[in-house]
Design goal:
Order of helices and strands: EEEEEEEEEEEEEEEEEEEEEEEEEEHEE
Number of helices: 1
Radius of gyration: 18 Å
Strand content: over 45%
CATH superfamily of the domain at 1-118: YVTN repeat-like/Quinoprotein amine dehydrogenase
Shape: globular
Number of strands: 28
Oligomer: single chain
Strand order of the largest sheet: 1-2-3-4-5-6-7
Distance between the termini: 20 Å
Mean pLDDT: 92
């Protein structure tokens, strides 16, 4: 899910389509159809195109490009299998899409909507955030299916050179369930399955523990304007932390939401946070090496809901 502060629209991947929701009225103002299994959304900075990672059936991966004025598909760009995170970089004006199955990232020129590079990575990319100053930070899945390595890893990528400039081992976090960025203090904020909430300096990888999250914590969203950090959970609790200083967070509230409302994004201008959920059924998947798809639940039609929490 992605909130566009300029248009006040929410772009929400919903398996076979992307729904575009007016955040003020809750009404669906448009839908982009035609996806196999839509994952994540990125938007260019001209208000012209949107980009969606689509894992299809797992044998191929694509980035679907759509016109934001008509919600019509304009192109399908083949990328690595099981693409997940996708980001627009305002410095190069390229889109970066990360493939966990093929362990690489694809670079798409938004002027021509063509693939211009595919860069290998030393592991399976999972979550990714961008600082809008030419750097992307990517967490890696643990090595091996069903295993947990002693420490997690964060890669730092230069968007201009399209190279990995640093690899940081995070011994306190074997895998990140949530990852966001505090731009003013230039630090990553990460949620771990060990229930730890940590801060990672974006310039040198220094780790500082800053709190605890729920055992089923998932997505994180940071509101820099109000100094609030939101932690979504599968059990239906939104934990809200207040930032007292760069590395000090106070647990402010636990707000009941809905089951599996674990995906969150913030609207700092109006002090709101959005969560989405639905009722789900298990995806029927067979085949080795497809754990990303086996873990993917399929929403039951008619059960989709957007949940809004305001200050």
């Amino acid at each position: 899910m992605l909130f566009d502060s300029a248009s006040k629209l929410l772009y929400i991947p919903r398996t076979d389509r992307v729904s575009v929701v007016d955040s003020n009225t809750g009404q669906i103002v448009g839908e982009v159809p035609g996806f196999g299994d839509a994952r994540s959304v990125a938007l260019d900075d001209k208000g012209k195109f949107g980009y969606v990672t689509d894992i299809m059936d797992g044998t191929i991966g694509v980035v679907g490009v759509f016109d934001r004025s008509t919600y019509k598909a304009v192109r399908s760009i083949k990328v690595g299998r099981i693409p997940g995170a996708i980001l627009f970089d305002p410095i190069t004006r390229n889109v970066f899409a990360f493939s966990s199955r093929d362990r690489n990232f694809s670079v798409i020129d938004t002027e021509t909507n063509t693939l211009i590079a595919t860069i290998p990575l030393p592991g399976r990319p999972h979550l990714a955030v961008i600082d809008n100053h030419g750097t992307i930070f990517v967490s890696l899945y643990p090595v091996g299916h069903g295993t947990v390595q002693p420490d997690g890893r964060i890669l730092r990528i230069d968007t201009k050179t399209q190279t990995v400039t640093a690899t940081w081992s995070i011994d306190s976090c074997p895998q990140f369930s949530g990852l966001t960025l505090d731009p003013a203090n230039r630090q990553l904020l990460g949620a771990c399955p060990t229930q730890k909430l940590i801060a990672i300096k974006a310039d040198n990888g220094q780790v500082t523990p800053v709190g605890e999250v729920a055992i089923d914590s998932a997505d994180l969203a940071f509101d820099p304007r109000n100094g609030l950090l939101y932690s979504g959970t599968n059990s239906g609790i939104l934990t809200i932390f207040h930032q007292e200083s760069a590395t000090q967070f106070t647990r402010q509230a636990d707000v009941p939401t809905l089951l599996r409302a674990s995906t969150v994004c913030a609207d700092p201008n109006q002090g709101r946070v959005f969560l989405v959920t639905a009722n789900f059924g298990q995806r029927p998947v067979s085949g080795e090496g497809m754990e990303e798809m086996q873990a993917r639940l399929i929403p039951i039609p008619g059960s989709f809901v957007v949940f809004v929490v305001e200050r």
